[in-house]
Amino acid sequence: MSEVISASALRELMRDWLRQGKQVFGPRQVKPGLVLYTRLTDPEQLLVSGFIHPSNSPKEFVFPRHEVIYSYRFEGKDLQLLDAPDSFPEQIVLAVRPCDAAALPILDKLFNWDFQDEFYNRRRQATTVVTLACLSHDDSCFCTSVGLGPADPRGSDAMLLPAQDDEFEVRPFTEKGEASFSGVTRTSSKQAGTPSGPAKKFDAGQVRTYLSENFEGPIWHDETLHCLGCGACAYTCPTCHCFDIVDEGNAAGGIRAKNWDSCQFPIFSLHASGHNPRSTQPQRQRQRLTHKFQIYPEKFGDILCTGCGNCTRNCPVNLGVLNVLEAMKNGQPL
Amino acid sequence: MSVPQTFEPKIVAFVCNWCTYLGADLAGTNRLEYPANVRIIRLPCTGRIDFNLIIKAFELNADAVLVSGCHPGDCHYTTGNYHARRRWMLFRELLSTLGFDLNRIHFTWISAAEGKKWQQVITEITEKTREMGPYPYLAIPDASVSTVDHGESTA
Amino acid sequence: MIESLRATCRRLLETGTAQVVIGYGQADPGKAVHPVFIRRPEDADQLTWNDQCYPNLVAYLKRKEVQSLGKAAIVVKGCDERGLIVLERESQIDRGSLYVIGIVCGGVGNPKLDKCKSCGAHRPRFANEILGESSLLQDGVGQKWQALEEFLTKSPSQRMAYWQNEFSRCLKCYACRQVCPMCYCERCLVDKNRPTCIDTSPTLKGNFAWHITRAFHLAGRCIGCDECTRVCPVGIDLRLLNQSLAKAAEEQFGYRAGMDPQAEPLIGSYSLQDKDGFIG
Question: In the structure, what pLDDT confidence band is assigned to residue B154 with cuts at 50, 70 and 90?
Fold first, then answer.
């Protein structure tokens, strides 16, 4: 026996959430061929099928691309300093892919490491994550190679598993998940199938060893030279979290803000002296792979990648981490 | 929504040092009155006026922008205004494609002897802009706020 | 034709005419095409050609990591080749030491990309060597401004609303800049920060400032390869901005970027005959 909800009842539930003043985010077809996780203002906008993975990631909703840390205004000779808001309306991110949800507990460790990042934590606490298990995958997906899967519960408050007749089995994993779906599901004998996900493409442990042994190896120059150094991979990645602090203002006032940054930009590691310890693209690509598959696991016990495939799909020249990881196999006993 | 009676348009004028600025100065020495709404920014030559300056003026709540320099053939640096002219011909196309209100961006040639013309141009632009009302660039209260509201594309 | 391409590559590397051949590779038929840098003759079999060869490889000539590999040979489609003309005119490449392998191209994409439907440059014109047959390729230049003209039926406030909507998605990833062969500044204006000129923040203000700046810095230089539009991860139709400037360049100055190697750069030059019609 399981608890199920129909697609139409799900949309009604979403309508209720909106009426209650909650913020709802989820996949939406923004233009033909483009699905993004974005704010939903109407239940009809929610997309629950017909796509593999949105072009962006839902980290936006706990770690926005631009966040004002404080702002200030000059009033004559007086300075008025305004802090960022310290509470947020409740938000629900709906129909999240399990790979994207699994990224959140991974990021939690970073944002609560040597410093409690209140900006992140406030939004995180106000967020309920409802995942949508995957029935299909494409060549860029590799969640199963990093210890996850198409119905993995990590990071999920509740999961929707597609069942027959346009219905979803609902599996709550946390109190938030239970509360979100209490009273709106019906008991049924339907059981959602267990999706299988992509075949394993590499061994993460062996990748970690390879990385620690091949810092100066030829793989970086051979396999990543075509990287053009944009931020498409980092910005659409659910686990990338680097940021830049900027000050913007004029004679009337201004802000200090936190913006996304990418280690692939040439100036990312540029020192004020003019020296750049990572002055070539292969060095920057090496940093990216090493951070995700060796350094973060050593520091936090988690791979900084959930196999969502966005980096490959969004890369202008079809690079992405998977291609490099698979190249580690060639000629190497991996 | 009616324009508040107290609306005073902010006109930003990027002018070249050798012609238009002196023309404005001549208006002054001749005691020709013109609206104080104009903020004059003096540059050596129209050739130096970067298109970004116009955008910045609007970002800082200008309601209209004027760019003015020496007549073709009279540039103090010989060819600066020819470069500027070509640049403006193209930039106006981009502004039009973006949906800027081209009625708010004006270009003139005003020489050092044309104090009267300066008075007329500024008066006219100020009145026109007062009628049109404020021009909040990007038309949202605070364009420096990020948004996760990706609207559906209307393309 | 692929065999000729690989043979050419081997020959160039064996004779030392080139030390690196920049082309397209595909690990296996199911996988995506990606740029390759062949430095040894025995690797020439990595080269391929098909209708998935999207990237404009000319963008790599500006990258110092590629420049340090030595004398280059490059595979170009007719649209890409226009970039070479512009780069040479702007003294960014030494055309004499570059070996250009021109590919006759019937269009990429399935369905064909918009730019291919109105292509008038199927056969590269200034290559050292041309590969491929061009018997059935039609000149579609007549439909060139179709997307732009449809867009221009919108009123100014509709246009501004459209761009606000589009730019609200922009992440400032700079994929558009990095794929562009014409964006070769060692330090881009948007990266300037002492003081900051263009906000780096992905706000409407910062995004408008960035896209206006990039579009205008490409006035008379954009070759219409449409790569910026293809690579945008959030689907912004950047072409429209560049096309409006290209159309103005053609209609007002009879100028097309990358067509005539002798032509003066558009914004870098002027004519006493330039007629504005709006300067009072």
Answer: very low
Is the C-alpha dihedral spanning C240, C241, C246, C247 positive or negative? Answer: positive
Q: For B142, name the nearest residue in chain A, comparing CA atoms only.
A: A254
- Residue A162 near residue A192 (C-beta atoms within 8 A): yes
Chain A interface includes C70 (CB < 8 A):
no
The total of structural domains in chain C comes to 2
Domains of chain B listed by start with CATH number: 11-139 (3.40.50)
Q: Give kind and range of the element (H or E) at residue B86.
A: helix B80-98
C246: containing domain: 144-253
Contact C125, C81 (CB under 8 A): yes
Interface check for C36 against chain B (CB to CB < 8 A): the answer is: no
Taking any CB pair shorter than 8 Å as contact, residues of chain A touching chain C are 30-31, 33-34, 36, 55-56, 65-66, 139, 225-226, 228-232, 234-236, 244, 246, 248, 257, 259-260, 262, 265, 267, 280-282, 312, 314, 316-319, 323
Whether residue C111 has a cis bond before it, omega within 30° of 0: yes
In this structure, which amino acid lies at residue B126?
T
Do residues A151 and A133 make contact, with C-beta atoms less than 8 angstroms apart?
A: yes
In a domain, C263, yes or no: no
Residue C201, chain B, CB below 8 Å: the answer is yes
Given the structure tokens 């050092």, which residue do they identify?
B112
pLDDT digits (tens, 9 = 90+) for A196-209: 899 999 999 999 99
ipTM score of complex: 0.94
Contact C48, C24 (CB under 8 A): yes
When scoring C43, C178, C184 by the number of chain A Cβ atoms within 10 A, the one with the most, hence best to mutate, is: C178
- Structural domain including A204 reads 2-327
- Residue B149: predicted pLDDT: 46
